[in-house]
Amino acid sequence: MASLQSSSAIGSLAYSSDRRRRGMTRAAINMTKLRTGGGLSLRLPARDLVQEVLDMGIGLSAATTSHVEKKYQSRTVSNVSDPMVIAKLHAIMEAVADRVEMHQNIGEQRDNWNSLLLTSINAITLTAATMAGIAATSIGGPLLALKTSSTLMYLAATGMLVVMNKIQPSQLVEEQRNAARLFRQLHCQIQTTLSSVNPNTSNVEEAMEKVLALDKAYPLPLIGVMLEKFPKTVEPAVWWPQHRQRQEGRTDGNGWSVELEEEMREIVGVLKRKDTEDYLRLGKIALKVNKILSISGPLLTGMAACGTAFMGSSHAPWAAIVGVVGGAMASVVNTMEHGGQVGMVFEMYRSNAGFFRLMEETIESNLNERDVGRRENGELFEMKVALQLGRSLSGLKNLAAASSYSTSKKGEANEEFASKLF
Questions:
Q1: What phi, psi does 253 have (nearest 5°)?
Q2: Residue 295: is its pLDDT beyond 90?
Q3: What HEC string does 24-74 produce?
Q4: Residue 360 contacts residue 140 (beta carbons within 8 Å)
Q5: pLDDT score of 80
């Protein structure tokens, strides 16, 4: 009986303990429901939930880090220039430097041609005139020897003058000076491209086009490709590619405004009406003078040779006068043409007209580009134009204002030239 009572007591204790535990578990579950909003039942234990949140955070941070690294790497790659492009630009720079040296050396050589040929031809001509004068007072054997020598010397001077007038050494020298200066300028431009921006294939193509355009404008050989020294029409020199590439703008406004565009249009108008037109007019005058002198020199020496050949005959007085005076006049004409370097003056005028034509095309190409972002920066471009014309920025604005005012007054042209350098 006692054992039954003890067993029942133990069972009641176990049953009450079990019920107490179930109550505590329900209380814990209810507390969890209350903390999470009452209507949400959590199926995961708290420790597993925290671990899952941590894993999600680590994965998100890893994905973000990889995305940032890829973006940074792409930017780094885009900012690094292509080594092959840099190597090509350096190769072009070496070729340009070599051309500068070549044009300088050949220019010095052709300058020597001009001075040596001028001195030699004048010496031959004056010697022949002196011998013709002495022959006029001689008879017999001395007369024949003197007039024959004088005739031969005049003929030699005539042939040398024809060749010299054809190639115009002074004009060749001016061509080589311009070529050396422009190639040196191109060399500096390539250096600036390598140091200031990230070069690409378009920079290489642009540099190549400029080199080839300069080679065509100022050829080195004399036979076959030499520039025409007496052209039918006077045109400005062209040493730039016809389809030149412009730099892309770096800002939204790009330094351009309506006032700046109007100012550049007025500058182009002044350059066309005054500077380019005036230098072409001067070039035509220099070309006419050079043609007259080039024809007169050989013609006078040829006439002097004929005069000396007829000395000692019935026309001896007139033959002697033609032989002596023709030689003296030929020396004067030759000195005026090649000593005064009329051919160089013509080439200088032609080159100056080409300089202004290049400025016109550069300004117009920027104004005709509707996308302002593809133009050269407006403020920088205005400063370049002012420096090329030898003016300050305020002086450039005053020139544009004066041009606009003069053209509005019934088409009256502005009397002021755009350039103050030459």
A1: -70, -35
A2: yes
A3: HHHHHHHHHHHHCCCCCCCCCCHHHHHHHHHHHHHHHHHHHHHHHHHHHHH
A4: no
A5: 58
